[in-house]
Amino acid sequence: MFQRVSIIGRVGQDPEMRYMPDGTAVTNFSVATTTGVSKDRSQPKGWKESYNGRRWELTTWFRVACWGKLAENANRYCKKGMLVFIEGELTGEAADGTLSPRVWQGKDGEHRANFELTARNVKFLDYGGSKEEEEEEEAYAF
Q: Which CATH number fits domain 5-139: 2.40.50.140, 3.40.50.2300, 3.40.1180.10, 3.30.530.20?
């Protein structure tokens, strides 16, 4: 059985690439997605007020893993703050493989959670570089 998840969000930090003992590249980075609703409604639980005071926002973090050639390309082209489209599979945190978020307690004592996503496709939706870099990036869409 195969499930597919698609997200659009901003890269939270520059990717980190390493190689497995068999030589396979793996790159990890985080992506934040934000959902918002009008402030006319009551504040949903767990949501925070945005900087402009007109919307309530909830940010969901995904820890993304890319493998092989996709990992090498993601490491080369993804940068913090870029808007990306990621398509892939959620992976479970629980021992039985259920699709639960990874939960931990932050330094501030607040509980945090994120989802693990194994990417099958990564596309850039904006690019902050020069025109030459944009043209080069288009040639390496993955």
A: 2.40.50.140
